Amino acid sequence: MYDLPSEDPEEPGLPDEFHDFQPQLLRETCQPPNYSRQEMFIATNLNVYYDSRHYLWHKRPDWFLVLGVTPAQQQQDLRWSYVVWQESRAPFLVVELLSPGTEAEDLGQTLRSANKPPTKWQAYEQYMRIPYYVVFDRYENQLRVFQLMPTQYQEAELSEPKFWIPELELGLGVWLGKYQETEGLWLRWYDGAGNWIETSKEHAQQEHQRAEQERQRAEQERQRAEQESQRAERLAEKLRTLGINPDDL
User: Fold this and answer.
1) Residues 6+ apart with CB under 8 A from 160
2) Is residue 88 left, alpha or beta, with left meaning phi > 0 and alpha meaning psi from -120 to 50?
3) What is the pLDDT of residue 11?
4) Each residue of 167-181: pLDDT tens digit?
């Protein structure tokens, strides 16, 4: 892992800000009820080395999820890359964010050149045999999901831009909203009830809103009790003016 770093001079930097923000949202909202954080490894733009016979062959997914692999507990143990034969587990799901320059390769429309490593599609489908391959095109608002069935990818038919993954008890869908102060179409996870999984910021905002609502409810209850006390006191005073002791009632 430490001998096969993620840097690649032929792939300098990130394509754009979207390729920075979108993976963050996927990571934040990937909260399957049947897997803890200690049972999942999530990475963004990290080289995946997948063939021990050709140890320099690698792909660099925009986002991927591995189940049953523990993330680093100490900073010095953070992975420099992901080496499939070392980890003994291939990714369970890969997400590629479509760019005009990578569309053909992302969708398996390029052929392998002689004496060259496999294409991205071939690496995912034939070498790593990744169960789910997701491609999101934000320009066309198109979500495409390819599932390994059993040895080749078949595209799922989507009636809406959402796809349920039973193994995770979560679904992936296209959400219109604001993330990182930017309004637009985003790919994010949703639960079995169809609710979008909250980010930590959204959760904090919801908690703050609930706390404020509770404070307002308590204040309204206090005011109601005070008004009731004042009403009772006025009634008692009126009874006294009529020569009636309210305490005797």
Assistant:
1) 173
2) left
3) 58
4) 999 999 999 999 999
